[in-house]
Amino acid sequence: MNHDEVLATFDAQMRRNARPDGPGARVDRTDTTTRQTGGESGWNGVLWSGLDAESADPVIAEQVEHFTGLGLEFEWKLYAHDLPHDLPQRLLAAGFTAEPQEALMVAEADRQSTAATPPEGITLREVTDEAGVDLMAVVHDQAFGTDGSRIRRQLLKQLTEAPETVVAVVAMAGDVPVSSARVEFVPGTDFAGLWGGGTVAAWRGRGIFRTLVAYRARIAAERGYRYLQVDASDQSRPILARLGFAQLSTTTPYVYQPKS
């Protein structure tokens, strides 16, 4: 895998020419930005920018005006290779807050192990309805310690209105959900995105995370997707590296909250 070529393809397909990530979302493209407006229940933010020292500040101000005019918090999804080099400082000066950095990691789908045999005592359940989404929300809250209500609403909307774009799975220990994840598909691209992989603390280190990667890799390969893409936390990055994922860049969410 040529890392530079794959990164360029990722930037073109998944950022510059991004499509809406769910029902009701809208993507707007200009010469300098690609942004999505997803409304109160969706993701809002800047996916790609092509800026220089002269254009950066006016474009940043334009995005702030757009989203705050709608009363929406939004994210500027900044990658390490984005220009200008001082864009992080410009975003901070404009009132954004940086969240933890993640690693952009990619692997070839057909080279991943697809042996999705769960550890003893664990069964995998594909999520198809509201009850399954509720189980995933329980895992999210416990695994990440954050409010998963927005993700819950977004996933339920996807499963209802565009089920072909997502497959979600929850790992059960008896009747208790202990891990969950989803894979999202963008037709016409080479990339399937692995999202939301998390395991509650008491069940970590038993191979559940690897099983869910294999489960989703099999589905992505069967659907003809060439690459698997993950925004990996420090916790999942070493596991993915052992599974053959390569780090192509880093990505940092810069979040802007409308002033009340």
Automatic annotation (TrEMBL):
Residues 11-46 are annotated as: Disordered. PROSITE patterns: GNAT. Gene3D superfamilies: 3.40.630.30. Residues 122-260 form the N-acetyltransferase domain. GO terms for molecular function: acyltransferase activity, transferring groups other than amino-acyl groups. This is N-acetyltransferase domain-containing protein. It comes from Planotetraspora kaengkrachanensis. The lineage of its organism: Bacteria, Bacillati, Actinomycetota, Actinomycetes, Streptosporangiales.
